[in-house]
TrEMBL record:
PROSITE patterns: HTH_LUXR_2
Gene3D superfamilies (alphabetical): Tetratricopeptide repeat domain (1.25.40.10), Winged helix-like DNA-binding domain superfamily/Winged helix DNA-binding domain (1.10.10.10)
Originating organism: Streptomyces osmaniensis
Domain of life: Bacteria
Name the record gives this protein: LuxR family transcriptional regulator
Domain spans labelled HTH luxR-type: 854-919
Length: 930
């Protein structure tokens, strides 16, 4: 609380006397920070409860802590990173110490440099690194009061930072009326009303008459011990009302009562003083010079406005300060609409259009009673600046207000389209729907109507993968053809990708593919986009044999795809390499996608790219690397709030063959994905089940799962499951099912001349052959797969060949292949398949001792510790590891000390010996780093 001249009142002392428990907790927090620990805390409670007094108690801590302060301001809630800027301004000289991507992101959001909008999570990493760097000299105490009024961008970033504090000497403490969504999950301290002696003492300090004990008790009870109410409400009551206990009968909420009290006090002030309070309330900056310049424009002078003071409601110092935020809202509410517009106009005229154009535009908008094209255009320009700083919510707010002020229908449609698009990017689907409706109503050209349809389609897709989005996107693409051929192709590709992901509507996928096949061919050399759309269309309309030549050219073109295109539609195009069974291109393409997304700071896209790379990595048998990618994807997904399907975990668990770990996940995925119509999830889960049960030699179950997966109209996994179906069907004697699966696999793999395709196809043909034909096919499969990095497939080929040889009583040859298979399975970590190979060896008459399975190295480490250790082993620096895992470099160092202790080593170099690469954990391929 702030006294009449801005200093602490005696009331603060009484409030804190009644907060001994809370103060003790805050003292422990300060002690922990001094000891090198990190703390985050949300102090929450209703208005006037004493949150600011508790933050003041922290500020009074001894001077060995550096204090950074910020205050959320209601009228700044639409300005991106306003609160964050307040907090970090004292550290701006340290920004140059940050890694380049983080430095660029922070300088961009603070308007120091122009650039593409940075991902807000990259900004969060930059702030975490900045605070960590600053805390190396002195512990940091970061206080944010009125956190419920933080702008959304600041709230997201500071919530992100607070969750990642670990080994830094930093405390981040928020004072808020309620626990905001972006601060949920943080440790909290609820502040309630004063009780007993403290409440009575505070009430007596605010009254000038002796109160009966029962009246005092009733007053305390009805105000719920709210300190500001105990101090403020007696001033609004007459001596008679106070002494008789009247005045609180039929009470409203306590905050409402307090604000009413402030309203009455404001109404009693002279007109010039009231107008001064109004201008200060309308100004979010708190700059005394700005307030006085604006006041002068409406004829308010310091001599008249301050002649009799402000009744303790407002004070001028380095900043203009209200006694309490409720005073600000009361001062604004007490004015007429005309007075408010005049105040905003005065503030707009007093604001430097070069130094602060966005606040000026917002004031102009608030000063405008009706439509005004010049102000609407200013807001549109402000939206562009906000978007460039990464403030999507602010850009949406500026554009939405711009629409309201626009009369011209065509311009109104354009601005509404822009508002809908940015609202969609900001995650506000309801606002996006409202403004796309406005754009639809005001559209005057066919091109505008087509773009309305496109945005509406994207909103539908963003609302969840469903069967409605693909036909909407198809219609949008068809209508775009006459206006923008390139955008039409991109939209066709997105429609195709969404339809393929839903995997529930073969009719829709065929319709999209047919439309794509009818697109005019380019007379110039075809681009990657042209080749991908043509190849995908052929894949559905004419089959793989017709599509493969085009898709191979597309895969080559995609190797040099510009980053901007990769970010827009690369997630669809990256499936090209898998469609032509090119395992090396698949790993390279997914690895590059991860690198590009990281470099762009597009962290909301990163979990999906990591999932694709993780799936590609499982094919090589590099389970350690795949698990590390899964861990990183989980960390990013948790940090960004982006849900990610457990496809890689399913695949990895199935190959490892640990039933206790994987069977519950398979069942849960089938149930959840099936209920929500996400049939891709069902496909992957059933494919994983087929792999698991083939490894366990539970062939009936493998056959059922494989048949379910193969029946879903999907173009990748439903093909990859066919070898599982062939193997399971052969083992149970269902030659018809095996033959049908082999026919489907032949259609999919025969046109592809890669060793992956031809090796797997030869193995499956061998399973359905006999005699010399089978011998030759098994040998061909081994020869081809040995030229790839697909170690699990090679090991499985040795296994089935050895099983066939044993059944043909060629035991010496069988043992050779079974031993090779067993050693490979054990080294890779494929437990179920290793046991299956061991049983076959025993059946062949060979005594076999169980090998220690791979993946035991570093098992004593936690998943995060192992992730850090592997990255450091592979040559990443602490800042690089921190950037990947959303940790500060100091936290990475803290984890490394624990890792060294657990592994009994003393240096980073020794990690190579402590966590060695096995023969079946290949090093990252050239072109990307894991």
């Amino acid at each position: 609380m702030v006294g009449p001249e801005g200093g602490p009142e005696r009331g603060d002392e009484v409030v804190l006397l009644g907060r001994q428990v809370e103060c003790a907790e805050l003292d422990r927090l300060v002690d922990a920070v001094r000891a090198g620990e990190s703390r985050a805390l949300v102090i929450h409670g209703p208005p006037g409860i004493g949150k600011s007094a508790l933050l003041g108690h922290l500020t009074d801590s001894p001077g060995d802590l550096r204090v950074l302060r910020a205050v959320g301001i209601e009228s700044e809630m639409e300005l991106p990173f306003a609160t964050l800027h307040q907090l970090c301004v004292p550290l701006v000289d340290r920004v140059e110490n940050l890694p380049t991507p983080q430095r660029t992101a922070l300088e961009t959001v603070f308007g120091i440099r122009a650039g593409a909008p940075p991902d807000r999570f990259l900004v969060g990493m930059a702030v975490l690194s900045l605070l960590s760097d600053a805390s190396q000299k002195r512990p940091l105490l970061c206080l944010v009061d009125d956190a419920h009024w933080m702008d959304r961008a600041s709230a997201q970033v500071l919530g992100f930072v607070a969750r990642r504090l670990l080994a830094e000497s930093i405390a981040l403490v928020f004072g808020a009326r309620e626990r905001a969504p972006d601060l949920l999950g943080l440790p909290d301290l609820e502040v309630t009303g004063l009780r007993g002696v403290a409440a009575h003492t505070l009430l007596e300090s605010a009254t000038h008459t002796r109160l009966d004990h029962d009246i005092r008790s009733r007053f305390v009870a009805e105000t719920q011990g709210n300190p500001l109410a105990l101090l403020e409400l007696p001033r609004a009551l007459s001596v008679t009302q106070l002494a008789g206990g009247f005045g609180l009968l039929n009470t409203d909420t306590v905050p409402g009562l307090i604000e009413q009290s402030f309203l009455r006090r404001i109404e009693d002030l002279p007109e010039q003083t009231r107008l001064l309070l109004l201008i200060a309330a309308a100004d979010p900056v708190g700059d005394p010079a700005l307030v006085w310049r604006a006041a002068d424009r409406i004829g308010v002078t310091p001599e008249e406005a301050l002649a009799d003071g402000t009744d303790g409601l407002l004070s001028f110092d380095l900043r203009v300060t209200f006694r309490h935020p409720l005073v600000r809202s009361a001062a604004y509410r007490s004015a007429t609409e005309s007075e408010r517009r005049s105040a905003h106009l005065a503030l707009a005229e007093a604001t430097d259009p070069r130094a602060d154009p966005d606040r000026r535009a917002w004031h102009l908008a608030s000063a405008t009673a009706g439509p005004d094209e010049s102000v609407a255009a200013e807001l549109e320009r402000s939206a562009g600046r906000a978007q460039a700083r990464g403030g999507l919510a602010a850009a949406a707010a500026f554009l939405q207000r711009s629409v309201v002020l626009t009369v011209d229908t065509s311009r109104r449609a354009e601005r509404a389209l822009a508002a809908a698009d940015v609202s969609l990017q900001a995650g506000d689907l309801d606002a996006a729907r409202r403004f796309v409706d406005v754009a639809d109503q005001n559209a005057r050209s066919n091109f505008q109507r087509v773009r309305v349809h496109l945005v509406r389609s994207r909103i539908t897709f963003a609302a969840g993968l469903n069967r409605e989005a693909p036909p909407l996107l198809l219609t949008a693409a068809q209508r775009l053809e006459r206006f923008d051929a390139n955008l039409a192709r991109e939209t066709y590709l997105l429609a195709w990708g969404t339809s393929a992901l839903v995997a529930a509507d073969a009719v829709s996928l065929r319709a999209i593919s047919q439309a794509m096949s009818e697109l005019p061919r380019s007379t110039a050399a075809p681009r990657a986009l042209d080749l991908v759309t043509e190849g995908y269309a052929l894949l559905v309309t004419d089959g793989r044999a017709a599509a493969v030549p085009v898709l191979k050219r597309a895969a080559a073109a995609l190797a040099d795809l510009p980053a901007r295109d990769l970010l827009k539609w690369g997630w669809v195009a990256n499936g090209v390499s898998a469609a032509v069974w090119d395992d090396r291109a698949m790993r390279s393409m997914y690895g590059r996608a991860v690198d590009v997304v990281r470099a762009a700071g597009a962290l909301t896209e990163l979990p999906f790219c990591l999932a694709s790379l993780g799936m590609a990595t499982t094919w090589t048998g590099n389970f350690t690397g795949a698990a590390a990618i899964v861990d990183e994807a989980d960390i990013v997904a948790a940090a960004t709030g982006v849900p990610i399907a457990p496809h890689v975990k399913l695949r990895l668990g199935a190959l490892r063959g640990r039933t206790a770990d994987i069977e519950p996940l398979i069942s849960a995925t089938v149930e959840d994905a099936g209920a929500s119509g996400q049939l891709m999830g069902v496909t992957v889960a059933q494919w994983s089940a087929a792999v698991l049960y083939n490894g366990l030699a539970r062939y009936e179950q493998a056959l059922a799962a494989a048949q379910t997966s193969a029946q879903i109209p999907e173009l990748w996994v439903s093909v990859w499951v066919l070898p599982e179906l062939v193997e399971a069907a052969v083992r149970v004697g269902d030659t018809k099912a095996a033959g049908g699966a082999l026919e489907g696999l032949t259609d999919a793999a025969a046109p592809c001349d890669t060793d992956w395709a031809q090796g797997v196809l030869a193995r499956c043909r061998a399973l359905l052959s006999d005699g010399a034909s089978a011998d030759g096919l098994y040998s061909e499969a081994i020869e081809r797969l040995a030229r790839t990095r697909l170690r699990p497939e090679l090991a499985r080929t040795h296994l089935v060949y050895g099983e066939w040889l044993r059944r043909k009583r060629r035991r010496v040859e069988a043992r050779e292949h079974l031993r090779t298979a067993y050693k490979m399975f054990a080294a890779i970590g494929m437990e179920a398949f290793a046991e299956r190979a061991r049983r076959e060896l025993l059946a062949s008459g060979e005594s076999i001792r169980k090998h220690r399975l791979e993946s035991s190295s570093g098992d004593e480490l936690t998943p995060q510790e192992k992730q850090i250790a592997l990255l450091v082993r592979d040559g990443f620096s602490n800042p690089e590891v921190g950037s990947r895992l959303f940790l500060s470099p100091r936290t990475v160092e803290w984890h490394l000390r624990k890792i060294f202790t657990k592994l009994s080593i003393t240096s980073r170099r020794q990690l190579r010996d402590a966590l060695p690469r096995s023969a079946y954990e290949p090093a990252p391929e050239q072109g990307f780093r894991r």
